Amino acid sequence: MIAGSHLSYAVTIFLMVAGLFIVIARGNLIKKLVGLGIFQTSVYLLYIAPGKLIGGTAPIIDAQFRIYSNPLPHVLILTAIVVGVATLALGLALVVRIREAYGSIEEDDILGSDAAGPTDAGPAR
Amino acid sequence: MSLALHLPALQVVVPLMAAPLAVLVRRAGAAFLVVTGASWVAFATAIALWSATSEGAAVSYAIGSWPPPWGIEYRVDRLSSFILLLVSGMAAITLPYSRASIEREIAPEQHYLYYAMLALCLTGLLGITMTGDAFNIFVFLEISSLSTYVLIALGRDRRALVAAYHYLVMGTIGATFIVIGIGLLYLTTGTLNLADMAARLRDVRETRPVLAALAFLTVGLSLKLALFPLHQWLPNAYTYAPSAVSAFLAATATKVSIYVLIRFYYSVFGESLIFDALPLPQVMLILSLAAMFGASAVAIVQHDLKRLFAYSSLAQIGYITLGLSFGSVTGLTASIVHIFNHAVTKGGLFLLVGGAMAVMGGTNLGRLSGMGRVMPLTSFGIVLGGLSLIGVPGTAGFVSKWYLILAALEKGQWWLAMAIVASSLLAVAYVWRFVEVAYFRPPQGDAVDLREARPGLLIPAWLLVAATLYFGLETSFSVRSAAAAAGMLIGAGR
Questions:
Q1: Any chain B CB within 8 A of the CB of A101?
Q2: pTM
Q3: What CA–CA distances, in Å, run from A89 to A30, A38, A45, B109?
Q4: How far is A85 from chain B (nearest CA, A)?
Q5: How big is the CA angle at B258 (ends B181 and B75), to the nearest 5 degrees?
Q6: Residue B76 belongs to what H/E stretch?
Q7: What is the pLDDT, as a whole number, of residue B265?
Q8: Measured distance CA(B335)–CA(B320) in Å, rounded
Q9: Over the stretch B145-174, which tens digit does the pLDDT of each residue have?
Q10: Residue of higher predicted confidence among B292 and B205
Q11: Of the candidates B444, B334, B341, which has an alpha carbon nearest to the alpha carbon of residue B394?
Q12: Contact residues on chain B for A98, CB-CB shorter than 8 A
């Protein structure tokens, strides 16, 4: 068992934890979204890396190709990437609206101005 | 008839097609008609599917005629058909209500977008319930979640934007945990079809990847169903969202996540792993008790009625997971029947609060004082809903509590039965807060145009209140469906 054979899993774990740390530890709303993106990228690696078999080729039906790498994880991750892109776009759109409403994209400022504000659902924006 | 053969696909496709149609027609009235029509067709389809599965047969539909397990399979059994009825029924009632309620809560140029997002949310929730493919669950979960974030952000208070953002971050972390769990299961078994996965997992149940998958799935789903302590997104999201959105989400979003949890626990991992080999029931018991008592206690000190009911929802979700932690047929029946009863109760309550907001201008308890005299029907409806939350006999909430206590006594845990009763007393305290403000305080000074809510707002809300009373007295539908679903799940695959 070579340490290198687990390289993809080590990178996955590093990205996963780094992404989560950024989401929790950074107060800037856009940085949180960046962390979320890094966290989602680690999952892509988790799916795709084990799909590659040693000596495996793309699934081409021919006499000379015996071992196929699994193409299904690639399809699943394409879907997951699209979901990630949609989430990022939606998050950024929300950040734009928050900036317009609060004047800041730092979480501390936003929570501070909410704590000082009214306690019921306020007037229409 | 060939249409009947394609009912499972139509259940999801009809609301899905309604969403871009609503965007294309642009005018709010036309978008309303398209989406409401689609939701009623979806409700009719759910009724047809429920009657098809009521004898115990499961309906299986291969998408694109690719046979399972290679293709995606839509599978309707007793549990899914019950949840389908609930979700489509709630949409069918909330949409006519929205027409009147969003006039004041959402800018007119955004109305058609509201209807499109609601159609997408309905699609996602119905798809999660229908599908028998693990990755498909994730895709539909994200469809429903992304549209939910937009729906919440449509609220008129600027804090709705922050609530939607926080829900987005937490919900995406939850969904990513779910996809990690599904990935580990796929790497272990080589299949994504739930039934096939269950068969292949039988030999490898206690290996580390499967246990890790179970852990990731549990945490991810607990985030989505707002189980304590992963509930932080819920109070703000329910409080600042438009009233119709709060009602629809409170009734459906967390319930469908609980359905996915039940599906994975019983139909994929199997009870012998969850309940015999792991301490999961004990952990779930502790978290449920924390939710029941903690959330009820916090609800008592709230100043905003919507936030009060949001914390009450957290406590009621604790009851559902408490029933799940028993692992017995009675416990699972209690959970499933409370999924239905709480959805009907909370949906009705949030719809009534929306009517109150339309007339009184806000949902702060101070603003709602004297409501009992100005809006008698709405206040009485909220009181009846509150009685159901407490679990007074004659309301739907009592039926769920009855089965929960029965399940606790079956296990010989008298202290747990006492705890369930004690937490219901906490519910009395927060319902009394509304009663005191509505009936024992004079109306606010600036009362100019205060009268009862419009029929468009009152009738759908009172339909749900009437349903709460009906299903509290005539329990044959809800209890029999839940018991049949529980009986089918337990003992199906140990």
A1: yes
A2: 0.94
A3: 11, 15, 22, 21
A4: 11
A5: 80
A6: strand B73-76
A7: 93
A8: 4
A9: 999 999 999 998 899 999 999 999 999 999
A10: B292
A11: B341
A12: 158, 161-162, 165
